[in-house]
Each structure stands twice: as structure tokens, then as C-alpha cells.
Amino acid sequence: MVVSEVVRAPAGADLKVQKIGLVGAQNVSAKDAFIVPLGSGRSPMGNTPYPPAANMTWEARVPAVNATIKAGEDANLLLVVSRSGALDGSATGMRLDWAGGSKTNTTSYQFRSVCGGA
What's the sign of the alpha-carbon dihedral 57, 39, 29, 112? Predict the structure, then answer.
């Protein structure tokens, strides 16, 4: 599964990404982290199965570590997440660490082997 979040760099400073990861992860782990600068017709990618079908945003991804989000610009943070086994998993948020700061979103994630209603 790929989970995503959009972040905006402050108007006066670039963000140099150090790490993107899950917070409060249980029975899941983040395998890879990417960013995609938004613009040039790219729309934020939502949470989606891995690997995503042909997707302009996914194709423009770059590894997150040492990537730069330009001042005042938006970027799509993407984490490739897998369950540790047959058990359902969860995380309480996604954390972005950059040179000089960090931010944790408040989105909780549920990863289930079977989705849907009764």
C-alpha cells in the first residue's frame, strides 16, 4: 500500500527532508519514502494499492532522504507500507523530519487484509 500526505514548505525557507516515517506503527513498516513536488499538472496522490497503476504523480517520485521542498511549494509525501504478517496493522500518523524541524500529521491509518462491509 502507498499512503500519502501533502505538505507545504514555509514561504521563507526550503525544507531539506531527512526522513519520512510512520508514528505508532503496529504490525506494519514503511519500506520506502518518496516525495513528489506538486505543480506541472501533478495532483496529490491518495492512498492506493502498491504498486500504483500508471500515475503521473507516482512516476515523478524521488527518494525522500535529502530531497528539497522549495519554499512556499507543496509536495506529496509517499510511503510504501507493508504489513509485518497476516495480522491487520495500524499507524497513528506520518512524521516528516527535515533539517531544523519536524511535523507529525494526525491521520490514523488502518491496514486490513480484507476491506469493506459485511
Answer: negative
